[in-house]
């Protein structure tokens, strides 16, 4: 995917030089192996800092809400879907945006690579064709790229941007996969087992709220967990408060979550928070046949009423 | 100073001896990463680990600590009296802690154990704890301890330093607490001259690999306001999502918030970690927030560690180079880059 870098720079240069946009948001090369940094450039002389490879998992749509200027933004499939959600939710106007679309082949999961290396960070990493090589002292490891993909990328069915003004490469083939095997496993559990499952899942949670902050959907001016007057949620590590946070956040992103995986990527203790949001996603799909962030000119099912909406929960 | 060599096959027995004397904490692999936990069995300590995901500050400054309890029941004769919550201050050993993390506790002492402020729980925990460190033969790509005045073999914050020399560990005490600990141990052997040489070689190699990655000495010479108003903050802050991971994982971030939690008639006064990255951290009762902007919060974290602390204590920076914030910042904000910008001799307009 590094080949996209040149095309991204070209596009950014043109857009800035022709004054089509005020800024371009993309990535610059990271300071450590397997990491890149979201980066905003304002002038043509900065374009060579823009960079692209398989370590651009952060969702750039997170930097858009309420921006007043004209923005060029580099967007892979999931970013583009969150841009659509932002447009639908009036967080940014389509006219303000110039979307540089990136057909995506999935992003690497740095944690998985570290785990494979016994929790040790590589001193050096490189992407080869279909492979990833990481080196540290005596351990030189080359593995299939697919082996190290982020969980959400493995089952992504919208790798191509759903909305764009130009593309930096040919469209890629979309995967035909069953997105919900893990959700069905949890659905099949008894209520007690399910409770156990989720208790274990969130047990290490520090309530740093990085999952929330990494999520483009979490743009509320004051999140309910931060509200101080009145304070809804306690600040200690009381389990009820931790559950409250996770459950409420999941419901708040229902019908909006694009499964971009930014939440899981950010979590410092590796909690699979998508286990909550994916169930919501599945329900919305089954009830309304709706996928978040795919159609830009139709109100989402949960913010409008249509006669004939299924109501199986009224009993 | 006393020293001994402990062969690896005898190490579990040595740990067991310790466990017979006091509580022993060690690096334990739990789920996806290592953390310090009280050992149930000597074998639980994974001495081949890199470092813990979260810093060991939790052992002295828990994320959420019940300070006092009280009753609000009017019929209770002790209603509305704060009573100290019971805590365990019995003696303990922390085994395998990294030199940078041990050094961090000394730095934190400035906050919890000085004439003006003395936190009794911090002090008691520090007193009852012996720190047995493990030298870093193979530092991470993101470590920079040698740049900020400590190092992979630094004994400054430790009572004993263990060095893995292949088939065993060389243990050397570096304080009187450490002397006491080693002198009571059985099964140790004399350190051979080869093993002693190996320690020297490993130390030089690790230090050389880390190198000096930026120059902290110029930080004290910089004009505070010039740094405060520097244009680079705008660039640095852009990607930050204010998640606070950097502060939660950091061994030298000590900020906390105190809250009362009441259930029915019973209440607890609880101290929780807080983070300068959170908007709520500085929100006034009036509704005014002096750090309402992300830029202000990002700048605060770096200015505190690399300038305010430097000027106030004249003893280096408030960072031990453990690299946790570098490794786990989800957007790759790298304190080393920021330090380079801050310490550059002239603060150039970006
Ligand atoms: S990022 Fe992880 S640790 Fe932090 S609040 Fe979310 S789930 Fe909890
Ligand atoms: S909840 Fe997670 S997966 Fe869903 S949009 Fe937010 S960051 Fe992406
Ligand atoms: S970890 Fe990174 S993104 Fe999170 S608050 Fe710290 S600097 Fe900002
Ligand atoms: S600022 Fe970062 S590198 Fe320095 S002590 Fe804290 S976590 Fe470690």
What does it look like?
The complex is a heterodimer of chains A (315) and B (350). Chain A has 315 residues and is of the alpha/beta class. Chain A has helices at residues 4-17, 77-88, 110-116, 151-154, 181-187, 191-202, 210-214, 239-252, 262-266, 274-288, and strands at 23-29, 36-41, 71-75, 97-101, 124-128, 131-136, 139-144, 166-167. Chain A has three domains: 1-107 and 156-177, Rossmann fold (3-Layer(aba) Sandwich); 110-148, no CATH class; 178-301, no CATH class. In chain A, 30% of the residues lie in helices and 13% in strands. Chain A has a five-stranded mixed beta sheet with strand order 2-1-3-4-8. In chain A, a hairpin with a 6-residue loop joins strand 1 (23-29) and strand 2. The N and C termini of chain A lie far apart (51 Å). Chain B is an alpha/beta fold and 350 residues long. Chain B has two domains: 3-210, no CATH class; 216-343, no CATH class. Chain B is built from eleven helices and eleven strands. Chain B has helices at residues 11-21, 99-112, 120-127, 176-183, 193-210, 224-228, 232-237, 245-249, 294-313, 324-328, 335-343, and strands at 3-7, 23-30, 33-38, 64-71, 83-84, 92-97, 129-134, 160-164, 168-173, 256-263, 266-273. Chain B has a seven-stranded mixed beta sheet with strand order 1-9-8-7-6-2-3, with helices on both faces. The longest helix of chain B is centred in the last third of the chain and has 20 residues, at 294-313. Chain B is globular, with a radius of gyration of 22 Å. At the A-B interface, strand 2 and helix 7 of A face helix 8, strand 10, strand 11 and helix 10 of B. The structure holds iron/sulfur cluster (4 copies).
